Amino acid sequence: MSRETTTGAESVLPTADGLPENARRLAVFSLAIGVAMASLDTAIANVALPAIAEQLNTTPASSVWIINVYQLAMVATLLPFAALGEIICYRRVLLFGLLLFTIASLGCALAWSLPSLVTARLLQGVGASAVMGVNTAMLKAIYPTKMLGRGYGTNALVVAVAFAIGPTMSSLILSVASWPWLFAINVPLGLVAFFLGRKVLPATHRATHKFDGLTALYNVVAFSLLILLFGDAAHQANVTTLLLELVGAALFFALLLHRQADHKAPMLPIDLLRRPMFALSVVTSVCTFAAQGLAFVALPFYFFSTLGRSPVETGFLMTPWAVMVAIMAPIAGRLSDHYSPGALGGIGLAILAAGLLALVLMPDAPSTINISWRMAMCGVGFGFFQAPNLKGFMGSAPPQRAGSASGMVATSRLIGQSTGAALVAYCFMLSSEHGAIFALWAAAAFAGAASVASFGRVVAVRT
């Protein structure tokens, strides 16, 4: 990789094989702030919805768009931003995302009506997408090759912990301040990440092909309709609406595939999906995050309604999962520098499946310790999966396609989580009394399937 001098705000440090240690720490700090904010804001507004709906004089059903539009914007634009990063440099896309996310967060804090808040959340989701779409590819430029597993472990730790503590942090902020502070807190953090990133984030090689705006449009519409389909199915929308969304999504995916059939670097990376290692990494990721989505939505209902625990107790019972993820993610990252990512991920996901089954098969009146060790077991398994899976994703793509691989990392995660959340709603539709149990059985099944897919990568590498 070429070397560039460090003169002015737009210059960067040499990136022959990662950054020097001091610059690397600062770059990782900048990147971690952006990733943490984007991950937190996926869930942080959920707890505040009732307060927001009341203050803005809107209905609970309408206020759900505050959540949906953020997720929709992220999923719809991840792959276009990843493709753009390959062309104009991941650093530029990341800095744009940080700046847009920060400005949009200020817009959310100052929102005076539901339309203004939804618009700001839409822009916030686009900014988060730019960050999440290229952050994994940026790690390859920040870390030396021999330390990539450690970098992926750090990234996995930030994403997992941010996602896990989002509701708790939201509750703490709301206990001392009003809901606009949920978004205002991002502004100083975003400015720190942006200005620090301008100084230390490295430049990357640029691809020679051009950005295809029509392909990006097809991608945005296709994934938007897919996420709307998941959400409407979960809320039992009428059959006509679901069919229209399904047909529309299928049509635009068909247009997308036709448009990029002969492209050397397709935006929806079908060239990478032809690689068994990459395809299995996608399957592993989607199934795992579907299991996580099912568990994280169903467990609070299970603890509160089925086991009769208070809301405060329910929050504490969720903690062992997050704590063990924080402990295991860096360990798994270091191990993935020396051992097969497929085997490490398969072992972790088998532990996750066993932990979820242990939760389902608990006695009728379990003690706090009985619940906690099962939740900790789930956290160990989930934490052991993430960094090796990132290593498998990025290691199975050529360097010039790192952006598309990075985009698929985030896309598969969000599709998995959306699938899990939609399936929880379906489980409760089947049985209001046993819906949480059905969802946990489904989560265990997804985790088991993910384990099989991950072990399949070991075979794929050998053949």
UniProtKB/TrEMBL annotation:
Keyword Thylakoid: no
Pfam families: MFS_1
InterPro entries per UniProt: MFS (IPR011701), MFS_dom (IPR020846), MFS_trans_sf (IPR036259)
The Major facilitator superfamily (MFS) profile domain, residue ranges: 27-463
Broad class of the protein's primary localization: membrane
Membrane-spanning ranges: 26-53, 65-84, 93-114, 126-143, 155-175, 181-201, 213-231, 237-257, 278-303, 315-335, 342-361, 438-460
Mode of membrane association: Multi-pass membrane protein
Residues in the signal sequence: none
Location(s) in or outside the cell: Cell membrane
Keyword Transmembrane: yes
Keywords, in A-Z order: Cell membrane, Membrane, Transmembrane, Transmembrane helix, Transport
Top-level taxon of origin: Bacteria
The protein's name: MFS transporter
